Give the backbone structure.
Amino acid sequence: MRTISKKLNNEEIEAFGKEVDALREEVMAKVGKEDADHIRSIYKTYRYTEFLGRGLIHFSFEPISFVAGTLLLSISKIINNMELGHNVLHGQYDWMNDPRFNSRTFEWDIVCNAHQWKFYHNYMHHTYTNVLNKDHDYGYNFTRLTEAQKWKPVHLTQPFTNMFLAMNFQWGIGAHGYRVEYLETPKKLRKKKTLKDYKALFFKKIESQILKDYVLFPALALLNFPKVILGNLIANLIRNLWTYAVIFCGHFTENAESFTTDEIVGETKAQWYLRQLKGSSNLDGNNLFYTMTGHLSHQIEHHMFPDMPAKRYREVAPRLKEICAKYGQHYNTGSFLKQFGSVWKRIIAYSFPDHIATKFMGKRKKFLEPTMVISQPSFQVSLSTEEKTVTLT
Amino acid sequence: MKTFPFIYNGPREFIQSLQPKEWADFFLGELNPRFSVTAIKAKVVSVIDETSDAKTLVLKPNWLWKGFQSGQHVPVTVEIGGRRVTRFFSLSSHPKDKYLHITVKRQKGGLVSNFLNQNIKTGDLLELGEASGEFVLTKDVPNELLFLAGGSGITPIHSILKELQAIKYSGKAKLLYFVRSYDDIILKSSLESIAKDANWLTIHYIFSEIPKEGFSSGFLSKEILDQHVSNLKTSSVYVCGPSPMQTKALSLLEGLPVKSELFLLPGQNQTNVKKEGTVDVFLTLSHKTIQVKGERSILEELEEQGIYPQSGCRMGICHTCVCKKQTGEVTDLSNGEKSQLGEENIQICVSRAESNLELEL
């Protein structure tokens, strides 16, 4: 994969990793009441918006209250999935010892079982970020986003399949649930569960979600049931489109890089940090926007520190950006429209064979110049590490 | 497990997935923070200074509180710096009292005992669990009772004495209260009013650090027992205090019916182990690998690295921290025994890592 970041040697990579680690430690030491209060207020907003939203839809006899209710329900679902669910399931608030915010007990309002999601998101996606054939989030198995993926005629349809995915995004997230955890665990490490058990969990969650949104609540509304079904459909649709947009901006923008399984053999922590940086991209915005994206607007910070309470990314970001500049590393950020545009440019470009795709994508910019020249290694790298590591190119 | 249709096979589970209790808790909590359908929440009605380093908290619990027996303890959860922390405290009041009392003495290095003494004020909210414990009076109350209390170990004994007073106890009871100095006597006025009211109780204060004229001084010993207790051979004994005192008492009273409640101070269950290198602890539910030294309990070593599993008494009584060990070997700190290598449930507060571990956390 082509890169616009400066190629660093091993000493520079390790020095970079050390600075990132120091930043992490400094911020993690501050985690406390402020973060607990934040997640509690998010929880409160989620409960009130759902209560009011559903209430308004149920008792709406004119369009205004119906629209308001549907919007409130969408907001509730977005908060539940993003700032609350996604972050809680990463274990960002496990330290609070509160079962409401514990990654072991939390279950969210989406057709995807939280426990299965944790396996293929927290473990597979976050460990093997943008590694082809390992990271199932990379293109969600059918989107071609780099020359490293072989072109097939079916890729011509990917602009359309992606539009379809956007509208049904929660199904896209849920879809690879039971397969990943079972099939990708080496046979001897597989627990006593069978594929059937995983499937059972998967379908159970889907069924309870459908029952809740399209049977139970409509039934409670008696004759008003068509409106409730419609309201829930629209709310789920809005949530799907929003999460699709935010999440696709996280890793598939123009300058987000992908990696092969060979590249990550014997990777050190510092090299891992660097890969997270190169594979992720941020969105600029205001605090409300950050909260509504569940701070996935700070995808880079999130990938470097997935278990840090997400609101802290706001204070980490400018400092991480400085470190990146110092080492000549591209810090991929931009406005929502710019980033989302570049995602779609890539989706469309790579739906064609390579010679068209590369032309469409255009030439890459040159390497970034580091603001600091690192002449002396800050510490000795032993020979054995050098032998083991494979340089990232 | 049959899946489809799940609603037919597991209607109750489906209703639970709608979180009716969480919704109820949320809205009740919005009305009044003390209200809940899942947790016993108690409001601090007043705070009484006992000594310079001990306070009694007077608590009004919500409707979920089921009561207790004199001598029992209760898990108390407070939020410190955003984190919920649980510790066990004896109830010092009588079960029939209008409010619950817990008396908390500051312990050196004790996170919760210091927090409760320093920060808790009238109107604050604590979360309680259900009362438990075997340190209670037997059904047929013996005719001769001896209570040995050390420091804050007086609190459950105080509750038992109040119970004896309530049932109009007709036997004889003696309390030997070992305490650092006259000023450190906890619940003094209440103890004395019980003694004054009833002729069945005699109290001897014994000062271990600062002697006072007219009182004995020293630590628990055969001489002190002989000096104060004439009917030792026929008494039933209740002991509560720090661990050195308990060990001494148990050896002095061998052969007698003894009930004891051990209150370990922070750090007392650490055995001095020094190890070289580290072992890997893999937390299977959170997909994390942590390096620990294996010198102290797994709980403490995890907390040191910013991971806070559920925990309670931190001395192996309450089983809050039980978790499944899938592989690896641990040493049980309470008896020094090494565990099996395979799958079993361990209490991480009294287990020390011996080899690489896989824990379901």
Observations:
- The beta strands of chain A are 282-284, 333-335.
- Residues 375-393 of chain A have pLDDT under 50 and may be disordered.
